[in-house]
Amino acid sequence: MLQCIFIISNSGEVILEKQLQGHRADRSLCNWFWEYAMTQGGELSQLLPVIASPTHYLFQIFREGIIFLACTQVEMPPLMGTEFLCRVADIISDYLGGLNEDLIKDNFVIVYELLDEMVDNGYPLITEPNILREMISPPNIVSKMLSVVTGRSSNVSTTLPVATQSCAPWRKTDIKNSGNEVYVNLVEEIDAIVRSDGNLVKCEIYGEIQVDSNLSGYPDLTLSFANPTILNDVRFHPCIRFRPWELYQLLSFVPPNGQFKLMSYRVKKLKSIPIYVKPQLISSSGSCRMTVLVGTRNDPGKPIDSITIEFHLPSCVTSADFTSNHGTVNILADKRCSWSIGRIPKDKAPSLTGNLVLESGLSSLHVCPVLQAKFKIMGVALSGLQIDRLDVKNMPTQPYKGFRALTRAGEYEVRS
Amino acid sequence: MAPPPQFQRSSSPSQPSGKSEISDLKLQLRQLAGSRAPGADDAKRELFKKVISHMTVGVDVSSLFSEMVMCSATSDIVLKKMCYLYVGNYAKGNPDLALLTINFLQRDCRDEDPMIRGLALRSLCSLRVTNLVEYLVGPLGSGLKDPNAYVRTVAAMGVLKLYHISASACVDADFPSMLKRLMLNDPDSQVVANCLSSLQEIWSAEANTSEEAAREREALLSKPLVYHLLNRIKEFNEWAQCLILDLISNYIPSDNDEIFDIMNLLEDRLQHANGAVVLGTIKVFLHLTLSMADVHQQVYERIKAPLLTLMSSGSPEQSYAVLSHLHLLVMRAPVLFSSDYKHFYCQYSEPSYVKKLKLEMLTAIANESNTYEIVTELCEYAANVDVSIAREAIRAVGKIALQQYDVNAIVDRLLQFLEMEKDYVTAETLVLVKDLLRKYPQWSHDCIAVVGNISSKNVQEPKAKSALIWMLGEYSQDMPEAPYILENLIDNWDDEHSSEVRLHLLTAVMKCFFKRPPETQNALGAALAAGLADFRQDVHDRALFYYRLLQYDESTAERVVNPPKQAVSVFADTQSSELKDRIFDEFNSLSVIYQKPSYMFTGKEHRGLTDISEELGNLSVEAQPAAEALPAQIYEANDVDLLLSTSEKEEVRGPVNNSSAYRAPDYDSTTAALVSSQVPLEADLSIPGLPAYNPQVSSAIDDLLGLGLSVAPTPAPPPLALNPKAALDPGSFQRKWSQLAISSSQEFCIEPRAVVALATPQTLLRHMQGHHIQCIASGGQPPSFKFFFYAQRAGQPPSFFLVECLVNSSSARVQVKIKADDGAAAGDFSALFQAALSKFGE
């Protein structure tokens, strides 16, 4: 299993090292890794997630400028390594309120403590955020305040979570919350590829149901959908009972305390997309005229917010200037153009026009930029998935139940 | 580019400037050690933080050990944790001082807070100091019986740690059977899981020496235990589930009912949020149903959706791992995913490693029903900003074309690529058009028309240029310009640096000559002359070969160089089906990612490579690897036996000729006058009974003869031939080694690729065996390895060469000491050894 975990900054410095086994992995491994990364072009996000070094097999993931590197010398399931590193990154980022070199350096004791509980002798142990929170409290302002007031300066809770003994490992039995409420959020991401002629190549929705539960005791929840048949494939939090879903498409579960991802799903073959983006490129003798039109295509019923169009100029373009009749256009250093539109105005269709100057010797543009659109729509789940009802049992008083929905663009790209 | 790595931070000014700061810390720690003042804990905490942060950046703070231990008497749990961390890191280097920590750790192991008991026990087991083992057994034993599950969890894993420090202490204390009892009876799932993983490792390691352990290991796969775990699987956390699923994938059910039972129990695991659990379940399903073809097919159907979801919803790193597995499955059942091809369309923002795998998937699942859409999509990528993906996409179009029946539309697309006038697109396309023509000669007409318009000046990449030249030669009858383009290329022979292109040029001009002699004659003469003058051995040899062939007989030459060709029906696959099956057996392992079965990249004794001592006295212990190597050796020897009967000489000389012992004779114009008649090669070539010289060779060749040759090879030194079946037992090796004096000692560098290949030292042993150099013992830990080789000279009198070879994989340096029965031959052998080593990793 895993032998060692290194946390490395994007300049190649080892921020933290956690040996997991008696058989130590030498730090020179990071040197090898860094040299390897440099020979691969130095683009850290493009590095293979699983690499074979002369002495070890390495798993690595790259998150917000930080590399999480784990090594092993024995055969093991690859997803176990990768998935575990993803969890480590998520949880550290969750605890520290972000990920960067300084945050980790300031809080390295917390990171060590977390890793200590998350993995023992190379075997992943506890990665459930709720349980970890009970063992090691995050370094937030509240706990700092508390330590000042009470004089107790430990960020380790004195009690051990009893969760490991209950039959629902994600929830301890005697939770007491002052609030009595449960929120269900539908968050959907729309992934689409649109061809230059406006035809839809592929359109799919990836959705998550996020629940924030502040219920006391041992509540039993049942969530039902009005139209569960539209779901193509679902993945569940361990708390969901499989039988009721299989038989009646009901989500029956005892929730963990606090925020968690109840389920994720895919909805395939969507026919309609909310906005259109029409790029046009006309080349003539060494320059290229580019126009982009944006507008609402199928009105989702709620306003479409924070629309942004981004694209990379091809490397053969030497200079470009853009003007738009709505919103602002920025050209960033790495030839990346960003046109932020915001909301589409009622009276006109936003358009962007510009002139691209090509490298000398090129008469027309052969490489077409791909435009990526970002937007979000509050209050709508574009897949059409509807929550029918949420029943709460095992509770003395009915809690407050809140429902929200949000759709945003995931990988929404338009080819030109 | 990011700035260069800065690992040696200790030398940078921002870091503690060495001793002064550390001694400062030391002083402060001492002052605090006995203090019970109110603020002492906070002050200690700040100090500890400083110490740990130094440790983290790699500064050696081990000199503070005793002070840290003195300060460790505290009730503050964070302080304790930092102290444990520090102690765990430096105990191994200070075994004597580590004894100091035992006391407080043992006391903490009896603390009333289970959290502290657990933490202390974990730290105690992580000290890794051999002479402290006796202090470990007690706390571990009581830890296993602790009322709190957290402590038992830690203790179960602690047993494994103890085993790795001292296997005998662990077994003597009867810990394995205690673990077994816990595993079967403990109510806490995490304790059970930790017991399972500890027992798996312990019994697998013990199984080599003890039959009982081997039986116990088997018992882990017994029906009651498997069901015990299966029925409770939902109680385990996700990682423990992975472990159990991995165990079950090795379980062999007794009948079909049992198979269905297990699959029913596990079916909902396919819906789990953790990808590792999903893949583990899929592995169980696939393995269980291997013998039932129709159910196996249903399993494919069932796992499709979860796999696609995993691929499209996770982070790119997860997608990569899942895609590698999908790729493996698609190879076995391409039809399965053929309707889901859109899932493998590349998204612009994905990293290229994901895109590459997706392109491979698209290639693999293309069939009659979806080819059109897939190829259309791939053509979009050809205009992609990312050049490497554009290239891959074009290659993918070509591969699809080669595996389809209806290539009509694809050929048009490929030809459109040529009109894009981007040099890399043109280059990739040319290579594909060449392959396409080899398979579908009927398309030559359309292709040639387009290819003929390409200016060879726009094609620079050797592979593409070779393809273009091949087509010019092959279809010169259809391309009016062909001889002139070729002539032009030959005129610029010196500007062409790739030997591949030069070789193709020679062949193409020959073909062209047979089809259109008058136009090509001059070009052929020039090409052969240039070829003969080439300093590259291959080019030179081919030119010479063609020249003599023409000299001998023109029509024979034509039959040799330009025979009627049959269309290629299937191009050779790079991976054998056997290999693919092997990888499939190792589903959900690193093998799938590397696309190699594990034996090709991981050694069984990877971790077990015991240090080989300086003295050869230990050799008897090392006899095991030597014995393991033996079957392979015999196998090899048999192979060689077969070969020897036909061409003993070449076989044995092979490796020598490739070495530096043989150098190509240079063309020397000053000796041109000596030439033509005495070219000794002619005699070699002329077969008795056939005319040695054909006087009707074209005038071009006469010219060439005028140029003259001096290709008299300098006689190669008598090569040293090694006995492929050499055998030497460790005992006599040891004796010889101590008797003989060192006859040659060298130090040199090896190639980086060899260093990479050294990740599994076994490959070196196999490689050297291929050169008839056997390994008798090997060992070492990365980065330094040690090998003992021996070899025997073929023929009489048999004389042995013994080699000690030290390889340092971090500096890529090799030290070789050679001892030989016949000291005079040691030099030759040394060269041979070095040559063999230099080819390692190719």
UniProtKB/TrEMBL annotation, chain A:
Keyword Transport among record annotations: yes
InterPro entries, per the entry: Adaptor_comp_med_subunit, AP2_Mu_C_sf, Clathrin_mu, Longin-like_dom_sf, MHD
Xref: SUPFAM superfamilies: Second domain of Mu2 adaptin subunit (ap50) of ap2 adaptor, SNARE-like
Chief localisation class: membrane
Domain MHD intervals: 179-415
UniProtKB keywords: Membrane, Protein transport, Transport
One matching Pfam family: Adap_comp_sub
GO CC field: clathrin adaptor complex; endomembrane system
Compartment(s) of residence: Endomembrane system
Presence of keyword Transmembrane helix: no
Domain of life: Eukaryota
Example GO BP: intracellular protein transport
Family: Belongs to the adaptor complexes medium subunit family.
Protein name (database record): MHD domain-containing protein
TrEMBL record, chain B:
Domain Beta-adaptin appendage C-terminal subdomain: 720-838
Protein name: Beta-adaptin-like protein
Biased composition (Low complexity): 7-17
Cellular location(s): Endomembrane system
Region of interest: Disordered: 1-22
Family that this chain belongs to: Belongs to the adaptor complexes large subunit family.
Major localization class: membrane
One GO BP: intracellular protein transport
TM region positions: none
Keyword Membrane (UniProt): yes
Residues of the signal peptide: none
Species, as recorded: Spirodela intermedia
GO molecular function, one term: clathrin binding
Source domain of life: Eukaryota
Coiled-coil zones: none
Keyword vocabulary terms for this entry: Membrane, Protein transport, Transport
SUPFAM superfamilies in alphabetical order: ARM repeat
Function of the protein: Subunit of clathrin-associated adaptor protein complex that plays a role in protein sorting in the late-Golgi/trans-Golgi network (TGN) and/or endosomes. The AP complexes mediate both the recruitment of clathrin to membranes and the recognition of sorting signals within the cytosolic tails of transmembrane cargo molecules.
Entry GO CC: clathrin adaptor complex; endomembrane system
Subunit organization: Adaptor protein complexes are heterotetramers composed of two large adaptins (beta-type subunit and alpha-type or delta-type or epsilon-type or gamma-type subunit), a medium adaptin (mu-type subunit) and a small adaptin (sigma-type subunit).
